[in-house]
Amino acid sequence: MEKATFAAGCFWGVEAIFRQLEGVTATCVGYTGGITENPTYEEICADKTAHAEAVEITYDPARISYQDLLEVFWQQHNPTTLNRQGPDIGAQYRSAIFYHNLAQKEAAQISKALLQQSEIYRNQPIVTEISAAGTFYKAEEYHQQYLEKRGFSNYVKVLTK
After folding, report:
1. Sign of the Cα pseudo-torsion (128, 129, 132, 136, in order)
2. Which of 9, 101, 118, 160 is the residue whose CA sits 20 to 30 A from 40?
3. Domain Peptide methionine sulphoxide reductase MsrA: where (predicted)?
């Protein structure tokens, strides 16, 4: 099993999307990329921790590739909006890839460059940060599988090309 960590706005929907993928064996929502140790949701919402809401994904590379995960990541949010996804505004909602090894770093950089050259984003700079994965702080339990627990996960669908 391997890990991948992505931030693409509010982590509830992002987690629900990745949980649908064949080969993803577990997900965990939390906070990463910032300066505050053991942050709370309230601190994250105050935009004072520099952390992003993120999803840590455990996946089986024999069943789904990191490249496949990257494709889903890019398709599920707008990587050209700085510190914002939809109505959610703040650095905690930024677009970010937190790589766990050099192969992931290279794959993320290549996929970002290719997407930037595509017809979709040629005239809009992609602002997605690509950084080494640091400490991942698990969010409070009520955030885990939030949409599933409330019966809304069937409203979130994986977009495909």
Report:
1. negative
2. 101
3. 3-151
Return the closest-CA partner of residue 58 out of 104, 95, 5: 5
State the alpha helices, DSSP H only, in the chain: 11-19, 41-45, 66-75, 102-117, 146-149
How far apart CA 139 and CA 132 sit, in angstroms, is: 20
Contact present, 17 and 73 (Cβ < 8 Å): no
Q: Cβ distance 80 to 125 under 8 Å?
A: yes
Kindly report, residue by residue over 27-78, the tens digit of the pLDDT: 999 999 999 999 999 999 998 899 999 999 999 999 999 999 999 999 999 9
DSSP-based three-state secondary structure for 119: coil
* pTM reported for the whole predicted model: 0.92
Q: Single out the catalytic residue among 8, 10, 24, 108.
A: 10
